[in-house]
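Subject line: Sequence and fold of a protein, written as structure tokens
Area: Proteins and the way their chains fold up in space.
Start of record: The labelled sequence and token lines come straight after this line.
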Amino acid sequence: MFFSPVFQLLLFTSLLHHSGPSTAQAAKVQIPEPSYFPICETSLSSPSAVSVIAAAKLLLANPPGRRCEQNNRLGTRCTTIATYEGAKIGLCGNYKSWIECAHVGRMVVSLALYKDCSIPIVGRGKDGGVDLRRLGGQIKVAGLKVVIFS
């Protein structure tokens, strides 16, 4: 049986649109993010909330699956994984343990927004604003600890 080229194209696209997922799509596995427990530890010496969120955005910009790894064998057993101005985000735990970088970024933003760990400091910032919020704390996740410090 012969169909016109236009009809063949319409039939082909219709079959593609209504067919199930391809084997490549069906094989894609979504790994759930581990549970985490935020702890507020904000003080007057904590970094500004704006800088902490900017550091978290650097982690969020990583492609899916990119690992942030703890590479410090001795002492604190913590590795700084992101910095922005005076804010630092560190990963503490066993040597060579890791977690997905973007997940760390989401957890830090959660600490800033959902848990509302920030405290206001009255003064003038570089941008001329009068509310300089500070943010500090840690997040326990999968045997690791994410720390926000300056």
